[in-house]
Design a protein that fits this description.
- By secondary structure, the protein is of the alpha/beta class.
- It contains 9 helices and 10 strands.
- A hairpin with a 5-residue loop joins strand 7 and strand 8.
- The longest helix has 20 residues.
- The radius of gyration is 18 Å and the shape is globular.
Length: about 290
Amino acid sequence: MRIDGVFSGGGIKGFALVGAYEEIERRKLSFVRLAGTSAGAIMAAFIAAGYTSAELKKLMFEVDGKQLLDDVYLDIPLVRWLKIYYKLGMYKGKKLEQWLEDRLAAKGIRTFGDLAPESLRVITSDITNGRLLTLPDDLPSYNKDPLSFSVARAVRMSCTLPYFFQPVKINAKSLVVDGGVLSNFPIWLFDEEDKKKKRPVLGVKLITKTKGLPRQVKTGTDLFGALFHTMKDAHDARYISRRHEKNIIFIPVSGTSVTDFNLTDEKKHALIQTGRDYAKAFFKSWCY
């Protein structure tokens, strides 16, 4: 059966999305349109490019997370602080983009023009102008041709976690960061409430096991974390209704930081298995 799909962000926890995709494939479901934010943007782009779950799983175990981070000269606290202060982030993100570019090119995908129309949309945040961007849809407003714009660059923009990766320039004046700042789970992209849906929309959303519990905010670091998580979740939490919930695979993940690029194979296996287990349980009662 043909469906549309949405994948949420979650940083390195996104390995769980691979497990969910395995179960989706096992159910003989295929995606027509895809959308995602951050790690979800990576998943959506790879699936749109034609990667199977088996190929993605192999890909994820081949890559060393540290290879996706740019070299940092003198990796000590003072240098890190100076880079964040003057460069707005620890890592440039160029190695991540190059990795994405190489893997997409292996499937013949370089620009949005290489994909079927409307098959992929990723969410980013323009912090210069204070607006949410849907790529490639919003590119013309920046005098960019959607068909010639790099898919890898768009996905990198969506993955630019503030302070961890340096913002990406979409033009001479505008800086773009992680789409999760404004919408970590863009299921609203496929909301056609006033129209008859062409096909079912399936969402895959990573959540924390502490969801619903109050956060402990005692230090400046706690405050930043609480602010970021509030921004990340507030928009989508307000939007998701019971009408959407029945079409969303919720995957609780914990014990792993979103920026833990040193994941062991054991942890990768565990995250993938978690995604697979929750997807399997979801499909036992899913009615579309």
